[in-house]
């Protein structure tokens, strides 16, 4: 469903990721770990077609990064949900409007927009807050709105870039629960995170990035001291 | 495009306009000033063109007949001239009629003719030519052809000032094009930059729209409408100022022309187009897709 084949990406001669290859199967939950600047966000941006590889090919569903035309990119993005650390919400609009915008863009019927938007808002635990302005919500609630927006069009993959980076541990746990529930519903999930505890507890596959390449990594057991990266 | 797409565009337009109401004041005022200057230039050009048109309309050719020309010769000559290319009409002016005209022209000073014995003025054929024939080269060729005919004493057509008029026309067309281009481009730049500031507050919306898969067209359309409406508002404001200025001028200088209906329509259309284009220019940086 998703594959990276020998993908490298440089910004002004500076290599962000180098010769990366991996696959994500339908319905899989994958964590992506690594220090800041290791290339996690670059991989997510490559998947979302915000940027393009300097070499190699990123395959998302039927679309190949070396052949895709600029006019097709929005249609690829409609099949991908994306949650950011900074939520990316329109703060002067309501929760409903922030979620519904993703369906309006697709051109769904008004009735369907209303029912599906309210359904997803309820799923993320914000039932009754649909008409509240996003600016009046807490960080955790904002992240729920962002997840609801990412899921409203039933994407085949959900990308999350440090989704709990701005949240307290309890709210972070709730956020992961929502991502898990989306995954149980059949959506593949790729989460870039520093939260090793959550990665350890989940038991999901891990892609560990170090200096722009994928390296094997042992996740410390509960109670053990966090390990330094294991070089290969 | 579905009904839902249209609804989305209309919603985004209203959200955006409501949100940027204050920040839109600056682009509207700046566009109004720029359009007012452009409008002054249009009105000035229209008046200059009217002066040139009036002068151009008077361009004609007069063939003075030799003394003793018979009416038969005159008729033949008239037919010959009428059949020449570029000739619209040929009128015969007898020497009596020429004298009457002269007396009318002299008005209160017609006493000057009291000492003149008989009628010294020759009869003439006044030749009206088509507008596209009123160039120095063509008039000169026509005058030579008519002057060669039997019974023609001399031909005049204002050869000096036709050449000068032509040079003025070329000069005004060149100045028109140059100033129009410079003013249009500078207005576009100013509008684009001012709109950029207004759009800065809305980049989060554009970012979200890109995130959820809105096409460039879907993102652009509300801004295009917004820019066009701001441009139309600015045109309205500029037109009002322009109209007041014209009224002020016409009270002091009779006969000053203002923009006609098509001129006003063009003015509003230009304002709308400027606003829309300015909006598109400022949106460009948010919609770039780079494969580098």
What layout of secondary structure does this protein have?
The complex is a heterodimer of chains A (232) and B (292).
Chain A: E1 2-11, E2 14-24, E3 29-33, H1 40-47, E4 55-60, E5 63-64, H2 73-77, E6 80-84, H3 95-106, H4 110-123, H5 139-151, E7 157-161, H6 169-184, E8 188-192, H7 196-202, E9 205-210, E10 213-215
Parallel strand pairs in A: 3-8, 3-9, 6-7, 7-8
Antiparallel strand pairs in A: 1-2, 1-4, 4-5, 9-10
Chain B: H1 3-19, H2 25-57, E1 61-65, H3 71-82, E2 87-93, H4 95-106, E3 124-129, H5 136-147, E4 152-156, H6 159-200, H7 203-211, H8 216-252, H9 261-283
Antiparallel strand pairs in B: 1-3, 1-4, 2-3
Helix pairs in contact in B: 1-8, 2-6, 2-8, 2-9, 6-9, 8-9
Structure keywords:
heterodimer; A: six-stranded mixed β-sheet; 7 helices; 10 strands; 32% helix; disordered C terminus; B: 292 residues; alpha+beta; 9 helices
Oligomer: heterodimer
Q: In sequence order, what are the helices and strands of chain B, one letter per element?
A: HHEHEHEHEHHHH
β-strand amount of chain B: 5-15%
* Structural class by sheet pairing and helices of chain A: alpha/beta
Shape of chain B: elongated
User: Would you tell me the overall average pLDDT of chain B?
Assistant: 83
Task: Summarize the structure in words.
The complex is a heterodimer of chains A (232) and B (292). Chain A is built from seven helices and ten strands. Chain A is an alpha/beta fold. A six-stranded mixed sheet of chain A has the order 6-7-8-3-9-10, with helices on both faces. The radius of gyration of chain A is 18 Å and the shape is globular. Mean pLDDT of chain A is 89; it is low at 223-232. Chain B has 292 residues and is of the alpha+beta class. Chain B has two domains: 3-55 and 165-286, no CATH class; 60-157, 2-Layer Sandwich (Alpha-Beta Plaits). In chain B, helix 1 crosses helix 8, helix 2 crosses helix 8 and helix 6 (159-200) packs across helix 9 (261-283). Chain B is elongated, with a radius of gyration of 31 Å. Chain B starts with a helix and ends in a 9-residue tail after the last helix. The mean pLDDT of chain B is 83. The chains are: A alpha/beta (232), B alpha+beta (292). Chain A binds chain B through residues 51-52, 70-71, 73-78, 82, 88-93, 98, 101-102, 104-110, 113, 149, 153, and chain B through 1-5, 7-8, 11, 15, 19, 204-205, 207-216, 218, 289-292.
